[in-house]
# Entry
Amino acid sequence: MPLSPTRSIGVGLISAGWMGRLHSRAYRMIPLVYPELGLRPRLVHAADAAEAGRVAASDVLGYERVSSDYRAVLADPEVDVVSICAPNFLHAEMGVAAARAGKPFWIEKPVGRSAADTAAVRDAAIATGVATSIGFNYRHPPAIARARQLIADGALGSITNIRGRIFGGFHADPQTPRAWRFVRDQAGSGVLGDLMGHLVDLVHFLTGPIGSVTATTGTFITERPGLPGTPDEGRLLPVENDDYANMLIRFDDSAVAAGALGTLDASWIAVGPKAEYAIEVFGTRGSLRWDFERMGELRLAIRRPGEGVGYTRLVADDAFPEYARFQPGSGTPMGYDDLKVIEAKKFLLAATGAAAENSNVHDALASAQVLAAAEESAASGRWVDTPAVPGHTGHAR
Ligand SMILES: NC(=O)c1ccc[n+]([C@@H]2O[C@H](COP(=O)([O-])OP(=O)(O)OC[C@H]3O[C@@H](n4cnc5c(N)ncnc54)[C@H](O)[C@@H]3O)[C@@H](O)[C@H]2O)c1
# Structure
């Protein structure tokens, strides 16, 4: 494969927590996994409000400079692109600031605590024309790319219904301290904005925009202990957002699944599942099933006249797009971090104007509008329509 001319890209990082460290590792993998692109990310400048984050950025990740104020990253002339990995409540301010600084940005989900926050980031990015990518990593498993191809090729016939659930147990322990994720003005909604946002985007990516929803939400762990080392240590404090959400959906007429119905469920207090992020798509000819806990597998059933129907278990091989980039041997598992490498590649291609395979601020707004409609429906008990969002990359007809 011919190599493109080498191009150095200065990377800025805002927040060096879990996601900030993962974005950084993903940038470092780009020349190894996609050598032919000639992209050479250089980790230039990181900001974190906490000293531990700054130390990790310089001493572990290898950033050349660190700052405590994220504005220093945006003002750095050697920074060409920026990753925004701060807690949710800072995303909108930072996304708008990155757009105004003319820096293409890769931002973690949820882009805002609300659809209004997300729209502000979308508007700023449109106004300055910077490329964007969103941390919707469940779009990238090769099995999901294969599922999208099968749906596009009509292998399942007309889509009739989908079922999605995104169940984690990482907040199931009532003793888990009340971090920012459980405080409404810092996180927005709870599992709805967090995990359900991923699921809604995955549904948009596979089967197209959701047109209307009716939803319920609940909070079952209503109090949690204050964070250790803060004045709240030793006190029980109220949880201010949901830990379970579900919705019925109808697809928009523009969706590849126009006319279809579905159910989506999300919990981050489920005891048992660890990362059971699963989707099933049913059509008139067949159906498929995928679960993140078995990321490399796709189950496919196709009805053929005169034959019995059952699920075939497809295991990752080079028929799954991108898989062979990571593993030369069929069936060898890829990992979550690999999804971020694919996401980094899509971001850098968009930022350099080479290709538009990325999810973008329009996708973030499309997901946020569905979540806003779900919150409205949970309060009113009614179906709520979601406004169309031009520019999204969901699976349209
Ligand atoms: N795509 C995914 O699958 C996924 C997974 C986990 C988290 N996330 C998202 O990533 C974001 C970050 O989550 P995380 O798990 O990395 O959190 P984290 O708590 O591990 O890290 C957050 C970091 O932000 C820093 N920070 C706080 N205030 C700051 C400020 N004013 N300026 C600069 N840095 C500041 C903290 O010091 C910390 O280092 C969240 O929005 C979360 O929803 C996405």
In short: Residues 43 and 63 are 5 Å apart (CA to CA). Residues 14-20, 47-50, 53, 70, 85-88, 90, 108-109, 135, 137, 194 surround nicotinamide-adenine-dinucleotide (CB under 6 Å). The first strand starts at residue 7 and ends at 14.
